[in-house]
Amino acid sequence: MQKTRLGISAGLLGAALYFVGLLGIIPVVLLAGYVLLFEDNEWLKRTAVKAVAIFAFFAILLAFVTLVDNSRWLISNIGGIFNRPVNMARIGSAISATRNIITVLRDLFVLLLGFAALKQGTVRLGAVDNTINKHL
After folding, report:
1. Model pTM?
2. Where are the domains of the chain?
């Protein structure tokens, strides 16, 4: 088991990359920055980049849902143009449900990746892993 400069195993630091991301994207970016700058373990560097990519992907999804939520008045006006009233309560409920689903999926996915990282493993994500391998 390889140790990091912090004195903990690479697997534990890899898991921490995913778990601190549940607190927000800034902690995972800061921890990934540390790993990329100061650690020599290639698996750990790939894990850092993957963790940031995963959280960025889910942040973009949630931002898109928020954009739709903030544009509800536009949807209502478009319905009015076609003489089709839009039930704003239904749209609000759908947006809220979508946000909750994305958040639950993110958390489950991150927990799966975090526990795999404890054993210095990973879950293969074709396009993400291929991009990381190409650029790192």
Report:
1. 0.83
2. 10-122
CA distance 76 to 111: 38
Say how far apart CA 70 and CA 51 lie, in whole Å. 28
Question: Three-class SS of residue 43?
Answer: helix
Angle at 85 between CA 83 and CA 91, to 5 degrees: 140
- pLDDT of the chain, 136 residues: tens digit per residue: 789 999 999 999 999 999 999 999 999 999 999 999 999 999 999 999 999 999 999 999 999 999 988 887 777 777 777 777 767 777 788 999 999 999 999 999 999 999 999 999 888 878 877 887 787 7
Q: Are 114 and 4 in contact (CB under 8 A)?
A: no
CB 114 within 8 A of CB 122: no
Nearest-angstrom CA–CA distance, 72 and 11:
44
CB 93 within 8 A of CB 103: no
pLDDT tens for each residue of 2-16:
899 999 999 999 999
